[in-house]
Amino acid sequence: MTYTKENFNNTFKEKINTINTALDTYIPIQNEIPEIIYDSMRYSIFAGGKRLRPILMMACYEALGGHGDEIIPFACAIEMIHTYSLIHDDLPTMDNDDFRRGKPTNHKVYGEAVALLAGDALLNLAFETMITAAKKYPQIPCLDALDIIAKASGTRGMIGGQTMDLLSENKDIDINTLQYIHENKTAAMICAAVKAGAAMAQASIEEIQIVERFGYCLGMAFQIQDDILDVISTTEQLGKPIHSDIKNHKSTYVSIVGLEESKQYVEKLSKEASDALHTLTNHTLTNHILQENGHFLLSLTKYLMHRSY
Ligand code: GRG
């Protein structure tokens, strides 16, 4: 099945609903003290993210033959880690942003100390959620997924990228340093999402390598598109202030190689991501359900390349 824009949007919304329903079960609503920490965690988790990483993980899992709800705790966990990183990134000690996902940032509502703890709590809850699932489903290679996600969110992944980003503020960095930042801060978690999905589906080493290539190219394209949107989009569309990179004295693809070259690079990376998926759909994904998920991933790649928020 090839996705029309309408079909794609509907399927995307269905997948968001699945994730949101599951996330709702993991964070207590009321009657558990201290209430403020749960309120603060829920505030950012349900502030309206695209759920890109969990959706990618689930689609890869299903495209490579995985079925059943075993993937759901891992998909929710990666969204918890992503949300923690956004809460911390917005803090005054980091980017000092007032809006995220179209709403006041966590620390603007709950104060810096609670926002910091809410981020910490989401990170802990992510690992607790995955460990509980690993104990429940001994027949699934859950530890592989845990390993992939732990590494990608650590110092050789997202935190490494964020640290280099901080060190690079107010400096003229070269393209290799920027490449390191983008690869680690953003692409690592996107790549981890698809790789963990493939690993849990017990994909072959060759399939995991193709999926990894797909995730890397998609993650880089996604971040460079983010650099572009910071320049050409609007605050209303993005749900956060534009020109934040300039405000924070950060180098981006646009500031280093210019807008046109950045757009061309996004196209090149998106094509490479799609080529990787074609390899999977043509040679590996043998039945209807697997192919359908492959086509969904192709449409998602196209959608991300043309996104305006
Ligand atoms: C603080 C440890 C730590 C890490 C921060 C992810 C990150 C690293 C910072 C967030 C700020 C930022 C611009 C990161 C680049 C990646 C990116 C574009 C994140 C936003 O992801 P989306 O668009 O957000 O998937 P939603 O809100 O849709 O979930």
Describe this structure in words.
- The chain is mainly α and 309 residues long.
- The protein has one domain: Orthogonal Bundle (Farnesyl Diphosphate Synthase), CATH 1.10.600.10.
- 73% of the residues lie in helices and 1% in strands.
- It is built from 15 helices and two strands.
- It has helices spanning 5-26, 35-45, 52-63, 72-90, 106-110, 112-136, 142-153, 158-168, 175-200, 205-232, 235-238, 244-247, 253-257, 259-283, 288-305, and strands at 99-100, 103-104.
- Helix 7 runs antiparallel to helix 9 (175-200).
- The longest helix is centred in the last third of the chain and has 28 residues, at 205-232.
- It starts with a helix and ends with a helix.
- Bound molecules: geranylgeranyl diphosphate.
- Geranylgeranyl diphosphate is lined by residues 49-50, 52, 82, 85-86, 88-89, 101, 158-159, 162, 185-186, 223, 226.
The CATH superfamily name is Farnesyl Diphosphate Synthase
What structural category do the secondary elements indicate?
mainly alpha
Low-confidence stretches: none
Query: In sequence order, what are the helices and strands, one letter per element?
Result: HHHHEEHHHHHHHHHHH
Number of strands: 2
Radius of gyration in whole Å, from Cα? 19 Å
Small-molecule binders = geranylgeranyl diphosphate
**CATH class type:** Mainly Alpha
The tally of structural domains comes to: 1
Q: What is the strand arrangement across the widest sheet?
A: 1-2
CATH topology: Farnesyl Diphosphate Synthase
Shape: globular
- Tell me roughly what share of residues is in helical segments: over 70%
Distance separating the two termini: 27 Å
Strand content: under 5%
CATH architecture: Orthogonal Bundle
* Major sheet details: 2 strands, antiparallel
- Average pLDDT across residues? 92
